[in-house]
Amino acid sequence: FGLYYVGLFEVDPTGKWAVLRAGTGEAGQHLLAEGYRLPIDASSMTGWCITHRRARLAPDVSQDAVYHLNPLLPETRAELALPLTSRGEVIGALSIQSAQEGALNEADMMVFQLLADQLATAIANARLYEQAREDALQSSLNSLGCLPLASRGLSITTPRNVMLASAILAIFLASIAFGVLAAATDHSPVHPTMGF
């Protein structure tokens, strides 16, 4: 696929922001460090796909009215934004970018949406698991007469969700790098040494 950048966004608790939780390359690390987020509205492809609950494809970003130029990703020529939907709820989005105009198409969109749906299910399941763990821990603390974790500003879910999102994104990218998707989209396999 020759991807330039992939970013995983999560809808924040207010439902107003898409917060970057994982991103590839140096740009991704910089964006994560600055707490990068986008409003959930039609001012970016990511916000648009969350708002409209469907994928948005820009084979040529210079021709797309919604495309949001990120100065840390100056080589982006094509972008695909995919909603992460689980149990009928959009919980985030996946931004896939290429430095080659026309490199992303409708067939890619269908395949990547299948992967995004699986990614969303994995994230939602991890959230449920972590919530169950936190509930069990709180129940144990309550039986000992301790104050609730939330009243002390504590939570055990956030760091694990960020780590999980990063791990899932790494697996997603590895599957692309090793050509797992090549047969499904009728593209030549990507050589494992190509960078994203």
Brief digest:
The protein has helices at residues 25-33, 45-52, 106-143, 158-177, 182-185, and strands at residues 3-11, 17-23, 37-39, 56-58, 78-86, 89-98. With 196 residues, it is an alpha+beta fold.
- Which stretches are low in confidence, meaning pLDDT under 50 for 5 or more residues running? 180-196
How big a fraction of the residues is strand?
15-25%
Question: Which structural class matches the secondary elements?
Answer: alpha+beta
**Widest sheet: strand ordering:** 3-2-1-6-5-4
Mean pLDDT: 80
DSSP, total strands: 6
Task: Assign a percent range to the helix content.
Answer: 40-55%
Shape: elongated
End-to-end CA span: 9 Å
Number of helices: 5
Q: Gyration radius, to the nearest Å? A: 18 Å
Strand/helix succession: EEHEHEEEHHH
User: Sheet bearing the most strands, described?
Assistant: 6 strands, antiparallel
Describe the protein in words.
By secondary structure, the chain is an alpha+beta fold. Helices cover 40% and strands 21% of the residues. It is built from five helices and six strands; from the N terminus they run ββαβαβββααα. The chain has helices spanning 25-33, 45-52, 106-143, 158-177, 182-185, and strands at 3-11, 17-23, 37-39, 56-58, 78-86, 89-98. A six-stranded antiparallel beta sheet has the order 3-2-1-6-5-4, with helices on both faces.
Attribute tags:
alpha+beta, 196 residues, 6-stranded antiparallel β-sheet, 6 strands
How is this fold's topology laid out?
Layout: E1 3-11, E2 17-23, H1 25-33, E3 37-39, H2 45-52, E4 56-58, E5 78-86, E6 89-98, H3 106-143, H4 158-177, H5 182-185
